Amino acid sequence: MVAGMNCPEVGAVVVLAGGLSPSPLARTAGRSVLDLWVASGESVLARWVSLLEGSGMLRRGAARVIHSREVPTPMPERGVEVRTERDGYRGPAGAVADATEDLGTDELVVVIEANRYHACPLDEGLGRGEVVGADLVICCNADHSPAGVYLIRRSVLERVPAAGYMDLKEQLIARAVEADHRVAHVEYRRVCSVPIRTRRELLWAARLAQEIGGARPAADPGRVLTGHRWTSVVASDAEVAPGATVVESIVMPGAFVGEGALVARSVVCPGGMVRAGETALDKVVRAEERAPMPRGTVRVRSRLAELLVRPRGRAVPAIGGQES
Fold it and tell me: Is residue 145 part of a domain?
């Protein structure tokens, strides 16, 4: 079967890229979460675009990325346009309604909550039989948590007021049910969509990308170790010195990790620097930022390396859970 041939034809794809306030990760990284990497050669936004292309739902026009704060990088060559939210206090449902005013009432809109990593093909949810004829489709993980993917008929969006705030999951869905719109709920066969709001969640997404998303970590000239749980993601154009150690971390394009440095459970953003002998532990290193050198650097770094760089079979600290 051709990927996406069972997905419905849609009039628009709307990618929601922000909220009323930036997430802890966006605030620390100083950039949109959609521009951060989860796999070799693939940012969060690029992953969503690949899924949409595979589903066939980008055939009619561009994906409309709606943001209110951090501006994601446009991808016009792949049919992605970036728009500023018309009113920052419209809420998710209001932003989607405003962005699709040009559609007919019977046309369908795919809505993506983009600050997530999604490992499964979209047609595993939107290609299901119960989607046919539905006015609103909610995709969920196998544990019933939201997967961040919705299919909404434009007639449902017409119930959004022309001014004021409206939430998508609570208010719009409730209005659709009250108005007797047909609402369908589909579940993926596994947990394949996770939020990315913190450093730990981004690292967890990188692990998920390798385990079920088929992602491949990039080769690197430095000492990039296969962790107990997953292998670090290092951009091919990042500079990692041969004597550096990188454990369960993400080193993005244009980043620098110097000789003898240790990067563990950390994210080095584009332009970020961990200089020779420095340690980045449980940290987001943003552009032009220098990783702090702890007191007793030589002794501490040596002890960290001893604890983190272990033979296979001995536990490396987990990366899941909430940011501390």
Answer: yes
Q: What is the pTM of this model?
A: 0.81
Q: In terms of domains, do 81 and 188 share one? A: yes
CATH number, domain at 172? 3.90.550.10
In a domain, 227, yes or no: yes
Domain that holds residue 239: 217-308
Nearest to 264 by CA among 210, 211, 220, 303: 303
On whether residue 291 sits in a domain, the answer given is yes
- pLDDT tens digits, 284-310: 999 875 555 444 333 334 344 444 544
At 240, which amino acid appears?
V
- With residue 142 as reference, give the H or E element that holds it: none
- Sorted by sequence, the CB contacts under 8 Å of residue 122 that are 6+ apart come out as 4, 7, 51, 52, 54, 55, 57, 149
313 lies in some domain = no
List Cα–Cα distances, 193 to 17, 139, 190, in angstroms: 16, 10, 9
**pLDDT, tens digit, for every residue of 26-45?**
999 998 999 999 887 789 99
Q: Which residues of the chain have pLDDT under 50?
A: 1-4, 219-222, 293-307, 309-322, 324
Tokens of 78: 């792949």
CA distance 224 to 61: 41
Last residue of a domain, one of 165, 195, 225: 195
Inter-CA distances, 262 with 29, 94, 274, Å: 19, 45, 8
The total number of structural domains in the chain stands at 2
Q: Which of 106, 208, 65, 98 is nearest to 147 (CA)?
A: 208
Do the beta carbons of residue 89 and residue 20 sit within 8 Å? Answer: yes
Residue 233 and residue 162 share a domain: no
